[in-house]
Amino acid sequence: MVILAHPNFRSIILFFVVLLLCNLASSQPVGKFPDYKVRVKEPTICDGAVKQHSGYFDIDDKKHFFFWAFESRNKPLEDPVVLWLHGGPGCSALNALFFELGPCKVNKGGNSTSENSNSWNSNATIIFLDQPDDAGFSYGEGVSDTASAAFDIYVFTQIFFTQFSQYANLSFHIAGVSYGGHYIPTLASLIMKYNNDNSNAMKLTNINLKSILIGNGLVNPLLQFVHFPDMACPLLDPLSCNQMKNNTQQCSDLTQTCYNTKNAKDCVFAKTDCFNTLIEPIEDASLNILDLRQQCSGILCYPDFGDIAIYLSRDDVRNALGVDPSVAFQLCSININNNFIMSGDWMLPFDGFIPSLLNSNIRTLVYAGDKDYLCNWIGNKAWTKALVWSGSQGFNNANDSAWITNNGNHSGDVTTFGVLSFLRVFDAGHMVPHDKPAESLDFFNKWIFNKHL
Question: Which domain holds residue 24?
Answer without folding.
Answer: 11-221+348-448
